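sorry for the late reply, my laptop died twice this morning and i had to redo everyting from scratch. anyway the thing you sent over, i finally got around to it. pasting the sequence first so we're on the same page, its 336 residues, then the predicted structure underneath. double check i copied it right bc i was rushing
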Amino acid sequence: NTPTLSNATGQNGWEYFVSTAGTQNLGSGNLTFAIGDQIIHNGSIYQVVPNSNTVTSVNGSQGAVVLTTTNISEGTNLYYTNVRTIAAPLTGFTTGTNTAITSGNSILTAFQNTQAQLNSKADLASPTFTGTPIAPTAAPGTNNTQLATTEFVTTANNLKADLLSPTFTGTPTAPTAANGTNTTQLATTAFVLANNPSRVIISSNVANSTTSFADVTGLSFPVVSGGTYYFRFLIPYSSAATSTGSAHSINGPTTTQLNYTVKRTSSATAGNISSASAYNTGSANASSILTGNIAEIVGIAKFSASGNVIARFFSEISGSAITVLGGAMVEYMRTQ
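ok and here's the structure:
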């Protein structure tokens, strides 16, 4: 039963031809099949359609007929047998002409022409060709012992770019220069990204109504030990009351150098600025506006451990929320 058929899984109109006789139960009782029968699904079950093209007799015999030369007389056309063919001598054999063998050739002529063709062939070992030998052209980039045709060599040359004002196609690659390189060396996409700030932008608001520093969830960037990084956080936020100020800082892995400034809104027309050289430091200002506040943290740090640097904040007044808004971002770049 290959493929495996059943009434339940069949669909109306599915049709198969039987290649092996036998009996199968497809879900509604045994069905007996003969070679050449068809089975067709009628929407509910498979049904057998007997083969109507069965041969009724062969050479006057019926059933499983097996014919041999004994059953059919030779008449005027004798059978070819191994004994007759092997016993036939190649009388008059000489090397023939180097021409194609045709159906009209006798066996002797065919052998003579075959010998002539063999005599015109090159040896497999260290052949010496004459004229203009041809061979299949290898695919571009092939690097093995296959013969290289003139077409292969020309194609290979055409795949090379000119030294003078080359025009590249596809996705050219090149070595990536060290950060800060300022020469005529090609700049790869990796170099460009490494020498321009990367950005992280959060999409959800983060609120804090306590007077303790809390993370601005998601507003962080990765650093590696030994690296020096420039960073700039831009943090829009709202306040529950104009009399509620806010504090902003950062946290991260250990550093050997850390310097940053914090700017934040205190009124519609004013703000304040402070400097820091440690994590989780700074006091809250005394006021803000309800909406339209923005804090900016800009600095540079050299890290002695790997990890993530994240923005933090708290409210001046417990129970009066400061909410960092979706769209807050940090841009950062490794400088050394």
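The mean pLDDT is 90.
thats about all i looked at so far, will dig more tmrw
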